[in-house]
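Input/output pair, single chain:
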Amino acid sequence: MGRITKAHGLKGGLKLELYTDDPDRRFTPGAVFSLQVPDESPWSGKTIAIDELRWYNGHPVAFFEGIGDRSAAETLARAILWVDQDPDEETGEEDAWYDHQLVGLRVLRDGVQVGTVARVDHLPAQDLLAVDTADRGEVLVPFVAAIVPAVDIAAGTVTVTPPTGLFEDPIAELATPEPPSSTPPTSAPSSSDES
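Output:
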């Protein structure tokens, strides 16, 4: 759902980097998050509940139960917040899926399987599907409608229409010169000197 970046203020606030499109639904008072922290952290294996989410200068700041001062807040810096989610829950949006719904789907090109979705990378410009293939290893496919026109969760497939070269080497014929002709060149007739 997000990552805690640093403490904010003196009363236990924590600045967040959000990984959700719907923070008002995910960060409601009482919502419980699992924490991803190093094993040596005092927070390892624990959960935390949110009291309130506020916005300061366009940045989300969370206040959690039991975190009442800056010192306590600093112990959570860089922790990643996870939420347990029903795997069958829909996103509520057309043409939108949760990462866990996409991972493991078969990737089809012209009806033939070319790989399997390994993960989804979320980048500022666009999302990428990381596809594990048998012959090329991992291939990063831009998750845009022009290249990924169909996702069928029920069938377990993602259909792709990638540009040439994304899943294979460019067509060999374009890079190979024509073989030389097997017929010997003809020589021009020679003129004879008459003396």
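The CA atoms of residues 38 and 44 lie 7 Å apart. The longest helix spans residues 70-74.
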